[in-house]
Amino acid sequence: MNEKDGRHRESHSADISMIREGEVKYWAAHFGVPEEELQEAVDTVGENAAAVREYLRR
Questions:
Q1: Are the CB atoms for 9 and 2 separated by under 8 Å?
Q2: What is the pLDDT of residues 39-49, one digit of tens each?
Q3: pLDDT per residue as tens digits for the range 4-58
Q4: Distances (CA, A) of 38 to 4, 5, 24, 27
Q5: 3 part of a folded domain
Q6: Are 10 and 52 in contact (CB under 8 A)?
Q7: What total of structural domains would you count in the chain?
Q8: DSSP labels for 1-58?
Q9: Are 31 and 56 within 8 A, CB to CB?
Q10: Predicted model pTM
Q11: Beta bridge partners of 48
Q12: Quick one: which of 2, 3, 13 has its CA closest to 49?
């Protein structure tokens, strides 16, 4: 997340925190999935955004 303006920026090393409501909403919208599906993906492959992206593409 950019500290100055509060915007998130995805990178290959980005992690998804499911305990921060703002991040959950951001990543769910980013991937175009409901929060529940994002949670399932994180539970399955871990918090790495690249791994979650690959899981959601299946």
A1: yes
A2: 999 999 999 99
A3: 444 555 444 599 999 999 999 999 999 999 999 999 999 999 999 999 999 999 9
A4: 26, 24, 8, 8
A5: no
A6: no
A7: 1
A8: --TTT------TT-B--TT-HHHHHHHHHHHT--HHHHHHHHHHH-SBHHHHHHHHH-
A9: yes
A10: 0.77
A11: 15
A12: 13
Q: Report the 10 Å Cβ neighbour count for 56.
A: 15
Query: What pLDDT score was predicted for residue 44?
Result: 98
**Residue type present at position 6:** G
Q: How confident is the model at residue 2 (pLDDT cuts 50, 70, 90)?
A: very low
Domain that holds residue 31: 21-57
Does 13 fall in a domain?
Answer: no
